[in-house]
Write a structure and sequence with these properties.
Strand order of the largest sheet of chain A: 4-3-1-2-9-10
Number of domains of chain A: 2
Structural class of chain A: alpha/beta
Radius of gyration of chain A: 18 Å
Distance between the termini of chain A: 35 Å
Largest interface: A-B, 28 and 28 residues
Order of helices and strands of chain A: HEHEHEHEHEHHEHHEHEHEHE
CATH architecture of the largest domain in chain A: 3-Layer(aba) Sandwich
CATH topology of the largest domain in chain A: Rossmann fold
Oligomer: homodimer
Number of helices of chain A: 12
Protein backbone atom coordinates (compact mmCIF):
# COMPACT_ATOMS: atom_id res chain seq x y z
CA UNK A 1 0.00 0.00 0.00
CA UNK A 2 1.45 3.39 -0.99
CA UNK A 3 0.61 6.92 0.13
CA UNK A 4 -2.13 7.41 -2.44
CA UNK A 5 -4.21 4.73 -0.77
CA UNK A 6 -4.42 6.92 2.34
CA UNK A 7 -5.83 9.81 0.33
CA UNK A 8 -9.50 10.60 0.78
CA UNK A 9 -12.38 9.90 -1.58
CA UNK A 10 -13.90 13.18 -2.78
CA UNK A 11 -17.70 13.18 -2.69
CA UNK A 12 -19.76 16.14 -3.84
CA UNK A 13 -23.29 17.35 -4.34
CA UNK A 14 -25.19 20.58 -4.84
CA UNK A 15 -26.13 20.50 -1.18
CA UNK A 16 -27.02 18.07 1.55
CA UNK A 17 -28.41 15.17 -0.48
CA UNK A 18 -25.04 13.62 -1.27
CA UNK A 19 -24.73 12.70 2.38
CA UNK A 20 -26.85 9.64 1.60
CA UNK A 21 -23.87 8.58 -0.53
CA UNK A 22 -21.40 9.32 2.26
CA UNK A 23 -23.48 7.17 4.57
CA UNK A 24 -23.45 4.26 2.12
CA UNK A 25 -19.69 4.70 1.54
CA UNK A 26 -19.00 4.66 5.29
CA UNK A 27 -20.89 1.40 5.57
CA UNK A 28 -19.35 -0.27 2.52
CA UNK A 29 -15.79 1.13 2.90
CA UNK A 30 -15.31 1.88 6.60
CA UNK A 31 -11.52 2.29 6.29
CA UNK A 32 -11.65 5.17 3.80
CA UNK A 33 -11.09 8.86 4.49
CA UNK A 34 -13.71 11.11 2.89
CA UNK A 35 -13.84 14.76 1.90
CA UNK A 36 -17.36 16.02 1.14
CA UNK A 37 -18.34 19.23 -0.58
CA UNK A 38 -21.94 20.52 -0.61
CA UNK A 39 -22.64 23.73 -2.51
CA UNK A 40 -25.22 24.97 -0.03
CA UNK A 41 -24.93 28.64 -1.06
CA UNK A 42 -26.10 27.80 -4.57
CA UNK A 43 -28.33 24.77 -4.03
CA UNK A 44 -30.47 23.51 -5.74
CA UNK A 45 -28.90 22.69 -9.10
CA UNK A 46 -31.90 20.71 -10.36
CA UNK A 47 -33.64 23.76 -11.78
CA UNK A 48 -30.53 25.48 -13.21
CA UNK A 49 -29.14 25.36 -16.74
CA UNK A 50 -26.45 23.00 -17.98
CA UNK A 51 -23.92 25.82 -18.48
CA UNK A 52 -24.33 27.11 -14.93
CA UNK A 53 -24.14 23.61 -13.44
CA UNK A 54 -20.95 22.89 -15.40
CA UNK A 55 -19.30 26.08 -14.15
CA UNK A 56 -20.23 25.39 -10.52
CA UNK A 57 -19.22 21.71 -10.78
CA UNK A 58 -15.75 22.44 -12.14
CA UNK A 59 -15.14 24.82 -9.23
CA UNK A 60 -16.01 22.01 -6.82
CA UNK A 61 -13.77 19.50 -8.60
CA UNK A 62 -10.86 21.98 -8.45
CA UNK A 63 -11.44 22.32 -4.71
CA UNK A 64 -11.44 18.54 -4.17
CA UNK A 65 -8.34 18.00 -6.33
CA UNK A 66 -6.53 20.50 -4.10
CA UNK A 67 -7.41 18.16 -1.22
CA UNK A 68 -5.51 15.30 -2.91
CA UNK A 69 -8.46 13.01 -3.42
CA UNK A 70 -7.74 9.62 -4.99
CA UNK A 71 -11.22 9.21 -6.49
CA UNK A 72 -14.29 11.30 -7.15
CA UNK A 73 -17.89 10.35 -6.40
CA UNK A 74 -20.47 12.54 -8.13
CA UNK A 75 -23.18 12.20 -5.51
CA UNK A 76 -25.68 14.36 -7.37
CA UNK A 77 -27.80 13.14 -10.23
CA UNK A 78 -28.09 16.59 -11.75
CA UNK A 79 -24.30 17.09 -11.85
CA UNK A 80 -23.75 13.58 -13.18
CA UNK A 81 -26.35 14.16 -15.88
CA UNK A 82 -24.97 17.47 -17.10
CA UNK A 83 -21.29 17.77 -16.17
CA UNK A 84 -20.18 14.11 -15.83
CA UNK A 85 -18.25 14.08 -19.07
CA UNK A 86 -16.28 17.27 -18.36
CA UNK A 87 -15.46 16.06 -14.86
CA UNK A 88 -14.06 12.77 -16.24
CA UNK A 89 -11.91 14.67 -18.76
CA UNK A 90 -10.50 16.80 -15.96
CA UNK A 91 -9.90 13.84 -13.63
CA UNK A 92 -7.71 12.00 -16.12
CA UNK A 93 -6.89 8.50 -14.83
CA UNK A 94 -8.51 8.99 -11.44
CA UNK A 95 -11.60 6.78 -10.84
CA UNK A 96 -14.79 8.83 -11.18
CA UNK A 97 -18.00 7.20 -9.98
CA UNK A 98 -21.45 8.67 -10.32
CA UNK A 99 -24.95 7.92 -9.15
CA UNK A 100 -26.42 7.70 -12.66
CA UNK A 101 -24.03 5.09 -14.06
CA UNK A 102 -24.34 3.04 -10.88
CA UNK A 103 -28.12 3.43 -10.75
CA UNK A 104 -28.58 2.46 -14.39
CA UNK A 105 -26.38 -0.61 -13.91
CA UNK A 106 -28.29 -1.72 -10.83
CA UNK A 107 -31.66 -1.16 -12.50
CA UNK A 108 -30.67 -3.35 -15.45
CA UNK A 109 -29.53 -6.09 -13.08
CA UNK A 110 -32.80 -5.87 -11.14
CA UNK A 111 -35.58 -5.68 -13.73
CA UNK A 112 -37.34 -8.86 -14.79
CA UNK A 113 -39.79 -7.43 -17.34
CA UNK A 114 -37.30 -4.92 -18.77
CA UNK A 115 -39.44 -1.92 -17.79
CA UNK A 116 -37.63 0.64 -15.65
CA UNK A 117 -39.01 3.83 -14.11
CA UNK A 118 -36.91 6.80 -13.02
CA UNK A 119 -37.91 9.64 -10.72
CA UNK A 120 -35.55 12.62 -10.59
CA UNK A 121 -35.29 16.42 -10.74
CA UNK A 122 -36.32 18.41 -13.83
CA UNK A 123 -32.77 18.89 -15.07
CA UNK A 124 -31.89 15.21 -14.67
CA UNK A 125 -35.05 14.20 -16.52
CA UNK A 126 -34.45 16.72 -19.30
CA UNK A 127 -30.87 15.53 -19.72
CA UNK A 128 -32.14 12.05 -20.63
CA UNK A 129 -29.00 10.69 -18.97
CA UNK A 130 -30.60 7.63 -17.36
CA UNK A 131 -32.22 6.51 -20.60
CA UNK A 132 -28.90 6.93 -22.43
CA UNK A 133 -27.01 4.97 -19.77
CA UNK A 134 -29.57 2.15 -19.80
CA UNK A 135 -30.01 2.02 -23.58
CA UNK A 136 -26.25 1.91 -24.15
CA UNK A 137 -26.40 -1.53 -22.54
CA UNK A 138 -29.83 -2.74 -23.59
CA UNK A 139 -31.64 -0.77 -26.25
CA UNK A 140 -34.79 -2.91 -25.81
CA UNK A 141 -35.44 -1.69 -22.26
CA UNK A 142 -38.46 0.51 -21.72
CA UNK A 143 -37.37 3.57 -19.69
CA UNK A 144 -40.01 5.89 -18.26
CA UNK A 145 -38.75 9.05 -16.54
CA UNK A 146 -40.81 11.35 -14.35
CA UNK A 147 -39.71 14.69 -12.91
CA UNK A 148 -40.54 14.73 -9.19
CA UNK A 149 -39.20 18.12 -8.08
CA UNK A 150 -41.51 18.55 -5.08
CA UNK A 151 -40.06 15.55 -3.29
CA UNK A 152 -36.84 17.48 -2.60
CA UNK A 153 -38.40 20.25 -0.48
CA UNK A 154 -40.78 17.70 1.11
CA UNK A 155 -37.78 15.70 2.33
CA UNK A 156 -36.02 18.86 3.51
CA UNK A 157 -39.17 19.86 5.38
CA UNK A 158 -39.01 16.47 7.10
CA UNK A 159 -42.45 15.40 5.88
CA UNK A 160 -41.20 11.86 5.28
CA UNK A 161 -44.45 10.16 6.28
CA UNK A 162 -46.97 12.94 5.65
CA UNK A 163 -50.23 12.71 3.74
CA UNK A 164 -49.10 15.54 1.45
CA UNK A 165 -45.97 13.60 0.54
CA UNK A 166 -48.00 10.45 -0.06
CA UNK A 167 -50.39 12.23 -2.45
CA UNK A 168 -47.46 13.84 -4.25
CA UNK A 169 -45.67 10.51 -4.65
CA UNK A 170 -48.90 8.91 -5.84
CA UNK A 171 -49.36 11.60 -8.50
CA UNK A 172 -45.79 11.28 -9.74
CA UNK A 173 -45.85 7.47 -9.84
CA UNK A 174 -49.19 7.16 -11.64
CA UNK A 175 -47.85 7.27 -15.24
CA UNK A 176 -44.97 4.93 -14.36
CA UNK A 177 -47.27 2.34 -12.80
CA UNK A 178 -49.61 2.53 -15.80
CA UNK A 179 -46.60 1.48 -17.89
CA UNK A 180 -46.14 -1.53 -15.62
CA UNK A 181 -42.55 -0.85 -14.49
CA UNK A 182 -41.12 -3.48 -12.14
CA UNK A 183 -38.06 -1.42 -11.10
CA UNK A 184 -37.88 2.20 -9.95
CA UNK A 185 -34.64 4.17 -9.70
CA UNK A 186 -34.60 6.79 -6.94
CA UNK A 187 -32.77 9.23 -9.20
CA UNK A 188 -32.13 11.99 -6.68
CA UNK A 189 -30.07 11.73 -3.51
CA UNK A 190 -32.98 13.01 -1.42
CA UNK A 191 -35.31 10.20 -2.39
CA UNK A 192 -33.83 7.30 -0.36
CA UNK A 193 -35.34 8.98 2.72
CA UNK A 194 -38.76 8.34 1.18
CA UNK A 195 -38.09 4.64 0.53
CA UNK A 196 -40.73 3.35 2.99
CA UNK A 197 -43.46 5.62 1.61
CA UNK A 198 -42.53 5.05 -2.05
CA UNK A 199 -42.48 1.30 -1.39
CA UNK A 200 -46.06 1.45 -0.09
CA UNK A 201 -47.23 3.46 -3.10
CA UNK A 202 -45.48 1.18 -5.60
CA UNK A 203 -46.18 -2.34 -4.30
CA UNK A 204 -44.27 -5.07 -6.08
CA UNK A 205 -41.84 -2.62 -7.65
CA UNK A 206 -38.13 -3.00 -6.77
CA UNK A 207 -36.53 0.25 -5.61
CA UNK A 208 -32.97 1.05 -6.70
CA UNK A 209 -31.19 3.26 -4.15
CA UNK A 210 -28.28 4.70 -6.09
CA UNK A 211 -26.37 5.62 -2.92
CA UNK A 212 -25.90 1.93 -2.13
CA UNK A 213 -25.11 0.93 -5.72
CA UNK A 214 -22.63 3.82 -6.07
CA UNK A 215 -20.82 2.76 -2.90
CA UNK A 216 -20.52 -0.76 -4.31
CA UNK A 217 -19.21 0.59 -7.64
CA UNK A 218 -16.69 2.73 -5.75
CA UNK A 219 -15.43 -0.29 -3.83
CA UNK A 220 -14.94 -2.20 -7.09
CA UNK A 221 -13.18 0.70 -8.84
CA UNK A 222 -10.78 1.32 -5.94
CA UNK A 223 -10.02 -2.38 -5.70
CA UNK A 224 -9.37 -2.63 -9.45
CA UNK A 225 -7.03 0.38 -9.29
CA UNK A 226 -5.21 -0.96 -6.20
CA UNK A 227 -6.33 2.12 -4.26
CA UNK A 228 -8.22 0.60 -1.32
CA UNK A 229 -7.22 1.84 2.12
CA UNK A 230 -6.72 -1.27 4.25
CA UNK A 231 -5.02 0.27 7.28
CA UNK A 232 -6.84 3.17 8.82
CA UNK A 233 -7.48 2.98 12.55
CA UNK A 234 -9.16 6.42 12.60
CA UNK A 235 -11.00 7.19 9.35
CA UNK A 236 -11.37 10.90 8.78
CA UNK A 237 -14.47 12.52 7.31
CA UNK A 238 -14.46 16.24 6.56
CA UNK A 239 -17.41 18.25 5.34
CA UNK A 240 -17.10 21.50 3.41
CA UNK A 241 -20.03 23.72 2.43
CA UNK A 242 -20.41 27.10 0.73
CA UNK A 243 -22.92 28.58 3.18
CA UNK A 244 -23.04 28.77 6.96
CA UNK A 245 -23.56 25.12 8.00
CA UNK A 246 -26.44 25.59 10.44
CA UNK A 247 -29.16 24.15 8.21
CA UNK A 248 -26.70 21.70 6.62
CA UNK A 249 -25.98 20.24 10.04
CA UNK A 250 -29.62 19.92 11.07
CA UNK A 251 -30.88 18.35 7.86
CA UNK A 252 -27.58 16.61 7.13
CA UNK A 253 -27.63 14.48 10.24
CA UNK A 254 -30.99 13.10 9.08
CA UNK A 255 -29.36 12.11 5.77
CA UNK A 256 -26.12 10.83 7.26
CA UNK A 257 -27.67 8.96 10.16
CA UNK A 258 -24.98 10.25 12.54
CA UNK A 259 -23.51 13.53 13.76
CA UNK A 260 -20.96 15.55 11.79
CA UNK A 261 -18.00 16.87 13.69
CA UNK A 262 -15.88 18.70 11.14
CA UNK A 263 -17.93 21.10 9.00
CA UNK A 264 -16.18 24.08 7.45
CA UNK A 265 -17.48 26.88 5.25
CA UNK A 266 -15.46 27.84 2.16
CA UNK A 267 -16.11 30.23 -0.73
CA UNK A 268 -15.76 28.98 -4.31
CA UNK A 269 -15.56 30.84 -7.61
CA UNK B 1 -39.63 66.99 -15.26
CA UNK B 2 -35.88 66.37 -15.46
CA UNK B 3 -33.85 63.50 -16.83
CA UNK B 4 -33.91 61.52 -13.62
CA UNK B 5 -37.66 61.07 -13.96
CA UNK B 6 -37.08 59.07 -17.14
CA UNK B 7 -34.75 56.68 -15.34
CA UNK B 8 -36.06 53.21 -14.61
CA UNK B 9 -37.21 51.76 -11.31
CA UNK B 10 -34.92 48.89 -10.28
CA UNK B 11 -36.80 45.84 -9.05
CA UNK B 12 -35.04 42.72 -7.81
CA UNK B 13 -35.61 39.31 -6.35
CA UNK B 14 -33.77 36.04 -5.81
CA UNK B 15 -35.57 34.65 -8.85
CA UNK B 16 -38.88 34.79 -10.61
CA UNK B 17 -41.19 35.70 -7.72
CA UNK B 18 -40.53 39.44 -7.88
CA UNK B 19 -42.36 39.53 -11.19
CA UNK B 20 -45.59 39.71 -9.17
CA UNK B 21 -44.25 43.10 -8.06
CA UNK B 22 -43.40 44.13 -11.61
CA UNK B 23 -46.94 43.24 -12.62
CA UNK B 24 -48.42 45.38 -9.84
CA UNK B 25 -46.04 48.26 -10.69
CA UNK B 26 -47.01 48.11 -14.38
CA UNK B 27 -50.65 48.40 -13.40
CA UNK B 28 -50.18 51.15 -10.82
CA UNK B 29 -47.46 53.14 -12.66
CA UNK B 30 -47.90 52.39 -16.35
CA UNK B 31 -45.60 55.25 -17.48
CA UNK B 32 -42.51 54.00 -15.66
CA UNK B 33 -39.51 52.22 -17.15
CA UNK B 34 -38.43 49.15 -15.18
CA UNK B 35 -35.22 47.15 -14.89
CA UNK B 36 -35.67 43.78 -13.21
CA UNK B 37 -32.98 41.49 -11.87
CA UNK B 38 -33.68 37.89 -10.83
CA UNK B 39 -30.79 35.85 -9.42
CA UNK B 40 -31.92 32.61 -11.04
CA UNK B 41 -28.48 30.97 -10.88
CA UNK B 42 -28.50 31.17 -7.08
CA UNK B 43 -32.20 31.00 -6.25
CA UNK B 44 -33.68 30.32 -3.69
CA UNK B 45 -32.41 32.67 -0.99
CA UNK B 46 -35.04 31.64 1.56
CA UNK B 47 -32.93 28.79 2.92
CA UNK B 48 -29.54 30.56 2.84
CA UNK B 49 -27.73 32.41 5.62
CA UNK B 50 -27.90 36.13 6.28
CA UNK B 51 -24.23 36.66 5.33
CA UNK B 52 -24.63 34.93 1.97
CA UNK B 53 -27.86 36.78 1.19
CA UNK B 54 -26.21 40.13 2.02
CA UNK B 55 -23.28 39.40 -0.30
CA UNK B 56 -25.53 38.36 -3.17
CA UNK B 57 -27.91 41.31 -2.62
CA UNK B 58 -25.16 43.93 -2.71
CA UNK B 59 -23.96 42.52 -6.04
CA UNK B 60 -27.46 42.95 -7.43
CA UNK B 61 -27.77 46.51 -6.11
CA UNK B 62 -24.42 47.42 -7.73
CA UNK B 63 -25.71 46.04 -11.02
CA UNK B 64 -28.93 48.08 -10.82
CA UNK B 65 -27.10 51.28 -9.82
CA UNK B 66 -24.98 50.89 -12.97
CA UNK B 67 -28.29 50.97 -14.87
CA UNK B 68 -29.08 54.43 -13.46
CA UNK B 69 -32.17 53.47 -11.55
CA UNK B 70 -34.01 56.27 -9.73
CA UNK B 71 -35.51 54.01 -7.06
CA UNK B 72 -35.10 50.47 -5.77
CA UNK B 73 -37.88 48.00 -5.04
CA UNK B 74 -36.78 45.01 -2.96
CA UNK B 75 -39.29 42.54 -4.36
CA UNK B 76 -38.13 39.66 -2.19
CA UNK B 77 -39.17 39.20 1.41
CA UNK B 78 -36.01 37.29 2.27
CA UNK B 79 -33.72 40.05 0.97
CA UNK B 80 -35.82 42.75 2.63
CA UNK B 81 -35.69 40.84 5.92
CA UNK B 82 -31.94 40.29 5.96
CA UNK B 83 -30.24 42.91 3.77
CA UNK B 84 -32.74 45.80 3.72
CA UNK B 85 -30.71 47.98 6.05
CA UNK B 86 -27.44 47.61 4.13
CA UNK B 87 -29.21 48.29 0.85
CA UNK B 88 -30.69 51.53 2.23
CA UNK B 89 -27.26 52.65 3.45
CA UNK B 90 -25.81 52.06 0.00
CA UNK B 91 -28.70 53.77 -1.81
CA UNK B 92 -28.26 57.05 0.07
CA UNK B 93 -31.11 59.45 -0.78
CA UNK B 94 -32.68 57.22 -3.41
CA UNK B 95 -36.15 55.89 -2.50
CA UNK B 96 -35.96 52.24 -1.44
CA UNK B 97 -39.24 50.36 -1.13
CA UNK B 98 -39.63 46.84 0.11
CA UNK B 99 -42.32 44.23 0.38
CA UNK B 100 -42.03 43.84 4.15
CA UNK B 101 -42.48 47.52 5.10
CA UNK B 102 -45.36 47.83 2.65
CA UNK B 103 -46.95 44.56 3.75
CA UNK B 104 -46.69 45.43 7.45
CA UNK B 105 -48.25 48.83 6.82
CA UNK B 106 -51.14 47.36 4.84
CA UNK B 107 -51.76 44.66 7.44
CA UNK B 108 -52.02 47.26 10.22
CA UNK B 109 -54.47 49.27 8.13
CA UNK B 110 -56.56 46.15 7.45
CA UNK B 111 -56.87 44.30 10.75
CA UNK B 112 -59.91 44.91 12.93
CA UNK B 113 -59.10 42.60 15.85
CA UNK B 114 -55.37 43.43 15.87
CA UNK B 115 -54.33 39.84 15.14
CA UNK B 116 -52.14 39.44 12.07
CA UNK B 117 -50.78 36.24 10.55
CA UNK B 118 -47.75 36.04 8.28
CA UNK B 119 -46.74 33.17 6.00
CA UNK B 120 -43.24 33.35 4.51
CA UNK B 121 -40.01 31.42 3.86
CA UNK B 122 -37.87 30.05 6.70
CA UNK B 123 -35.33 32.85 6.52
CA UNK B 124 -37.98 35.57 6.53
CA UNK B 125 -39.70 33.97 9.51
CA UNK B 126 -36.42 33.53 11.40
CA UNK B 127 -35.48 37.17 10.77
CA UNK B 128 -38.59 38.28 12.67
CA UNK B 129 -38.71 41.27 10.30
CA UNK B 130 -42.51 41.41 9.95
CA UNK B 131 -43.08 41.36 13.69
CA UNK B 132 -40.50 44.13 14.15
CA UNK B 133 -42.05 46.26 11.40
CA UNK B 134 -45.56 45.82 12.84
CA UNK B 135 -44.59 46.25 16.49
CA UNK B 136 -42.64 49.42 15.74
CA UNK B 137 -46.03 50.97 14.93
CA UNK B 138 -48.31 49.10 17.30
CA UNK B 139 -46.72 47.02 20.01
CA UNK B 140 -50.11 45.64 21.09
CA UNK B 141 -50.67 43.76 17.82
CA UNK B 142 -50.56 39.99 17.96
CA UNK B 143 -48.27 38.75 15.17
CA UNK B 144 -48.19 35.05 14.34
CA UNK B 145 -45.64 33.94 11.76
CA UNK B 146 -45.55 30.57 10.04
CA UNK B 147 -42.83 29.29 7.71
CA UNK B 148 -44.46 27.89 4.57
CA UNK B 149 -41.47 26.83 2.46
CA UNK B 150 -43.28 24.17 0.43
CA UNK B 151 -45.59 26.71 -1.17
CA UNK B 152 -42.72 28.06 -3.28
CA UNK B 153 -41.99 24.83 -5.19
CA UNK B 154 -45.73 24.07 -5.37
CA UNK B 155 -46.30 27.39 -7.16
CA UNK B 156 -43.31 26.78 -9.44
CA UNK B 157 -44.69 23.33 -10.26
CA UNK B 158 -47.92 25.07 -11.28
CA UNK B 159 -50.03 23.14 -8.76
CA UNK B 160 -52.08 26.25 -8.00
CA UNK B 161 -55.35 24.41 -7.47
CA UNK B 162 -54.12 20.94 -6.53
CA UNK B 163 -55.25 18.80 -3.61
CA UNK B 164 -51.63 18.55 -2.41
CA UNK B 165 -51.35 22.34 -2.30
CA UNK B 166 -54.67 22.60 -0.47
CA UNK B 167 -53.57 20.12 2.23
CA UNK B 168 -50.24 21.91 2.58
CA UNK B 169 -51.91 25.30 2.94
CA UNK B 170 -54.36 23.84 5.45
CA UNK B 171 -51.50 22.45 7.55
CA UNK B 172 -49.59 25.73 7.52
CA UNK B 173 -52.65 27.88 8.33
CA UNK B 174 -53.90 25.71 11.20
CA UNK B 175 -51.95 27.40 14.04
CA UNK B 176 -52.72 30.88 12.65
CA UNK B 177 -56.45 30.21 12.48
CA UNK B 178 -56.40 28.79 16.02
CA UNK B 179 -55.07 32.19 17.08
CA UNK B 180 -58.05 33.83 15.39
CA UNK B 181 -56.14 36.12 12.99
CA UNK B 182 -58.36 38.33 10.80
CA UNK B 183 -55.56 39.41 8.42
CA UNK B 184 -52.96 37.29 6.65
CA UNK B 185 -49.89 38.72 4.92
CA UNK B 186 -48.72 36.73 1.90
CA UNK B 187 -45.09 37.24 2.90
CA UNK B 188 -43.42 35.71 -0.15
CA UNK B 189 -43.71 36.91 -3.72
CA UNK B 190 -44.82 33.46 -4.88
CA UNK B 191 -47.89 33.37 -2.67
CA UNK B 192 -50.19 35.81 -4.51
CA UNK B 193 -50.64 33.08 -7.14
CA UNK B 194 -52.30 30.99 -4.43
CA UNK B 195 -54.70 33.73 -3.38
CA UNK B 196 -57.88 31.88 -4.49
CA UNK B 197 -56.91 28.67 -2.68
CA UNK B 198 -55.66 30.43 0.46
CA UNK B 199 -58.86 32.48 0.51
CA UNK B 200 -60.93 29.27 0.53
CA UNK B 201 -58.85 27.77 3.34
CA UNK B 202 -58.98 30.95 5.45
CA UNK B 203 -62.60 32.11 5.14
CA UNK B 204 -63.26 35.55 6.63
CA UNK B 205 -59.55 36.40 6.77
CA UNK B 206 -58.36 39.42 4.75
CA UNK B 207 -55.35 38.64 2.54
CA UNK B 208 -52.62 41.24 2.15
CA UNK B 209 -50.85 40.94 -1.21
CA UNK B 210 -47.62 42.82 -0.70
CA UNK B 211 -47.03 43.23 -4.45
CA UNK B 212 -50.02 45.56 -4.67
CA UNK B 213 -49.21 47.43 -1.46
CA UNK B 214 -45.56 47.84 -2.50
CA UNK B 215 -46.60 49.29 -5.86
CA UNK B 216 -48.80 51.80 -4.04
CA UNK B 217 -45.94 52.72 -1.67
CA UNK B 218 -43.64 53.16 -4.67
CA UNK B 219 -46.11 55.52 -6.33
CA UNK B 220 -46.28 57.62 -3.16
CA UNK B 221 -42.50 57.70 -2.68
CA UNK B 222 -41.82 58.72 -6.29
CA UNK B 223 -44.49 61.37 -6.10
CA UNK B 224 -43.09 62.75 -2.85
CA UNK B 225 -39.60 62.90 -4.34
CA UNK B 226 -40.83 64.51 -7.57
CA UNK B 227 -39.60 61.51 -9.52
CA UNK B 228 -42.74 60.30 -11.30
CA UNK B 229 -42.45 59.75 -15.03
CA UNK B 230 -45.41 61.50 -16.60
CA UNK B 231 -44.40 61.42 -20.26
CA UNK B 232 -43.49 58.02 -21.58
CA UNK B 233 -45.25 56.91 -24.74
CA UNK B 234 -43.32 53.59 -24.84
CA UNK B 235 -42.48 52.32 -21.36
CA UNK B 236 -39.49 50.01 -21.37
CA UNK B 237 -39.20 46.89 -19.24
CA UNK B 238 -35.94 44.95 -19.23
CA UNK B 239 -35.35 41.67 -17.45
CA UNK B 240 -31.92 40.43 -16.38
CA UNK B 241 -31.24 37.02 -14.87
CA UNK B 242 -28.12 35.14 -13.79
CA UNK B 243 -29.00 31.82 -15.44
CA UNK B 244 -30.21 30.90 -18.93
CA UNK B 245 -33.74 32.34 -19.03
CA UNK B 246 -35.62 29.32 -20.35
CA UNK B 247 -37.33 28.38 -17.10
CA UNK B 248 -37.55 32.03 -16.04
CA UNK B 249 -39.54 32.80 -19.17
CA UNK B 250 -41.92 29.86 -18.80
CA UNK B 251 -42.70 30.35 -15.13
CA UNK B 252 -42.25 34.12 -15.29
CA UNK B 253 -45.05 34.68 -17.73
CA UNK B 254 -47.39 33.01 -15.26
CA UNK B 255 -46.26 35.50 -12.59
CA UNK B 256 -46.22 38.55 -14.85
CA UNK B 257 -49.46 37.80 -16.64
CA UNK B 258 -47.94 38.77 -19.99
CA UNK B 259 -45.00 37.87 -22.22
CA UNK B 260 -41.46 39.12 -21.66
CA UNK B 261 -39.61 40.39 -24.68
CA UNK B 262 -36.23 41.53 -23.39
CA UNK B 263 -34.57 38.95 -21.15
CA UNK B 264 -30.81 38.94 -20.89
CA UNK B 265 -28.44 36.73 -18.93
CA UNK B 266 -25.62 38.39 -16.97
CA UNK B 267 -23.02 37.07 -14.53
CA UNK B 268 -22.62 38.74 -11.12
CA UNK B 269 -19.91 38.47 -8.49
Amino acid sequence: MNNTNQCPIGVFDSGVGGLTNVRALMERLPMENIVYFGDTARVPYGTKSRATIETFSMQIVDFLLEHDVKALVIACNTIAATAGQRIRQKAGNMPVLDVISAGAQAALATTRNNKIGIIATNTTVNSNAYARAIHSQNSATLVRTQAAPLLVPLVEEGWLDHEVTRLTVREYLKPLLVDNIDTLVLGCTHFPLLKPLIGQEAPGVALVDSAITTAEATAQALSAAGLLNSENPAPDCRFYVSDIPLRFRTIGERFLGRSMEQIEMVTLG
